[in-house]
Structures are given as C-alpha cells and as structure tokens.
Amino acid sequence: MAKGLIWATAEDIVTNRERVLSLYRQMLRSLNSPKLPLTLGARLAKKAEVRTIFMLGSDERSIHNIADLIDTAEYCLSRLKKGEIPKHIPT
Fold first, then answer.
1. Mind listing the pLDDT tens digit for each residue in 11-52?
2. Which of 16, 57, 66, 79 could bridge across to 86 with cysteines, CB 3.0–4.6 Å?
3. Domain of residue 48, residue span
C-alpha cells in the first residue's frame, strides 16, 4: 500500500481484494469446524455476522481501515483454527 495516503488507490484496492476474499472464505469454512462448541443456529448467526462485516468492509476506501479489516480477520481466523471463538466474533 502507498505510504502516507489516507485513501486507497485503485491499485491498493485490487492488491488487497484477493487477500480479503480469501480471508472471508477461510473464515466461513472455519465456522463449520466440529472443534467449535456452536449449535447449527449459532453457526449460521456467526456466518451472517462475518458476511455483514466483510460486506461493509468491501466498500471501504481508507487504507488504514482496510489494513485493520485484514488484521482482525487474520486474528479471528487463527483463533477459529484453534477451535476457539475470538472476542471479535461475540457468542
């Protein structure tokens, strides 16, 4: 990403789009893990929550907010892979 700019350029958005979409898919898959102590209804609610967060994030044009979205998604994904529900996805 370009340093010192507040708004993302078209190049920044294209560069990060693949990463954001990959994280979105991985999080949805991780919510299906049998390691998580969630009922079917809770899993569906969590998936809807993840979809909402990423839909709002997809319209984001601020470099800092895009970076925060990626960092938060990576943190949540690491916790989900360990069978834990991260604080950023409330139960």
1. 777 777 788 888 899 999 999 988 888 899 999 998 998 888
2. 79
3. 17-82
Q: Is residue 36 part of a domain?
A: yes
In-domain check, residue 44? yes
Closest CA to 78 of 30, 24, 20: 30
With a pLDDT cut of 70, the percent of the chain lying above it is 88
CA–CA distance, 45 with 57 (Å, rounded to integer) = 18
> How many Cα atoms sit within 13 Å of 41 on the Cβ side?
0
- Look at residue 10 and tell me if it is in a domain: no
Report, as an integer, the average pLDDT of 62-69.
81
Cβ neighbors of 61 (< 8 A, separation 6 or more) are 7, 8, 13
Closest CA to 55 of 85, 86, 28: 28
Whole-number Å distance between alpha carbons of 69 and 67: 5
